[in-house]
Amino acid sequence: MSNAPSTNALAYPSDREALRAELRTLEQTPGVAKPDPILTVDRIERRFGGMTAVDVDHLQVQRGAITALIGPNGAGKTTFFNLLTGFDHPSNAASLVGSSEGKASWSFEGRQLGRTNATKVARAGMIRTFQLTKALNRMTVLENMLIGANDQPGENMFVGLVKPLWAKRERENVERAEDLLRKFKLHEKRDDMAGGLSGGQKKLLEMARALMTNPSMIMLDEPMAGVNPALTQSLLDHIQMLRDEGTTVLFVEHDMHMVRHISDWVVVMAQGKIIAEGLPEEVMTSSAVVDAYLGAHHDRDLGDDDVLTTGVIRAIATEAAEELAQEISEESR
Ligand SMILES: Nc1ncnc2c1ncn2[C@@H]1O[C@H](COP(=O)(O)OP(=O)(O)OP(=O)(O)O)[C@@H](O)[C@H]1O
Ligand SMILES: [Mg+2]
Question: Is 75 in the pocket of ligand 1 (CB under 6 A)?
């Protein structure tokens, strides 16, 4: 299949229905080509000792869509994010010399990213947030935002060393930060220490910070985890607003209601591999996916979260089966 933008490409991002109609025409199979991919990944592997955490053969992410990456605990979702964004390196990384045969390769906006570091990936317009929030507690909310304007705070950022860089506050950055804080309802907290925010507010702050560089794609690792239910709707609205403004969103989430509610396309990972992709209403209830979730729990005790996830998957599967049965009976009437 060709990678050329489809005739519908101009209609979205603003027209979600056009995008969805286009996605509905795709074959729902792992690695399927998208009409207009912003990110294309080939043969990426990450091994830890004898264990293969990620082994993705091919994946394309559609521009302008909200794509959910789901899968049981330990499936490799976070490791996959780390690889794509340069926070970790593939075990089959390409080297400067030698053949690229079998080597990892991925491109974003047509640009090869295989040999780039996290800062350069962020500058290319692909930015991510972390499963465990990385809001810098001993800085104010506004200062956290200003860091986002320069480089993405990495796993080991030496705040003390970097401070002089961002302390020279360019007017523009402050204005952009304040606009975003207003949008995310954090403006009143701008001079508070980020450490004093609630878990959900920290998630919002991270998302707002990631937007400081106006990325073309944002990758969110469990944006809803630890978020107070009172803030979840606001988070959902923000993610949809991003998509409506043209930002491509790829997010990892265990909350299946959220996945079903906002995603245009769902990719399922289990044991490091993409085992399914497709429309949310179809792929989430496929037997392969339900099995992957249930199978992942065979050999260990279930924690509360796992029971919840598995329970929700079952509930959704039941709900979808009932809806389908009803549609069929209505049609045959
Ligand atoms: N630095 C590391 N060293 C060794 N093993 C690791 C490391 N990082 C991840 N792993 C292992 O790789 C596998 C995939 O982990 P990863 O965190 O990517 O899963 P995940 O899909 O994000 O899970 P969760 O939904 O629980 O966040 C797990 O078995 C994990 O223990
Ligand atoms: Mg994870």
Answer: yes
Instruction: Flag whether 216 is in a domain.
Output: yes
Query: Does 164 reside within a domain?
Result: yes
2 falls within a domain: no
pLDDT of 112-150, one tens digit each? 887 778 878 888 888 888 877 666 777 899 988 887 775
Q: In this structure, what DSSP letter does residue 140 have?
A: B
Ligand 1: which of 48, 80, 130, 256 to mutate, judged by most atoms within 8 Å of the beta carbon? Answer: 48
Looking at the CA of 273, name the nearest ligand: 1
For residue 180, the enclosing domain spans: 7-332
Which CATH number do you get for residue 276? 3.40.50.300
Helices assigned H by DSSP within 168-279: 171-183, 199-210, 229-244, 256-262
Burial 68-88 (b: 16+ CB within 10 A, else e): bbbbbeebbbbbbbbbbbbbb
Number of structural domains in the chain: 1
1 belongs to a structural domain: no
Q: Cβ–Cβ contacts within 10 Å for residue 245, how many?
A: 12
Q: Let me know: does 53 contact 79? Beta carbons within 8 Å.
A: yes
CA distance linking residue 159 with residue 136, whole number of Å: 9
pTM listed for this prediction: 0.81
139, 194 in Cβ contact below 8 A?
Answer: yes
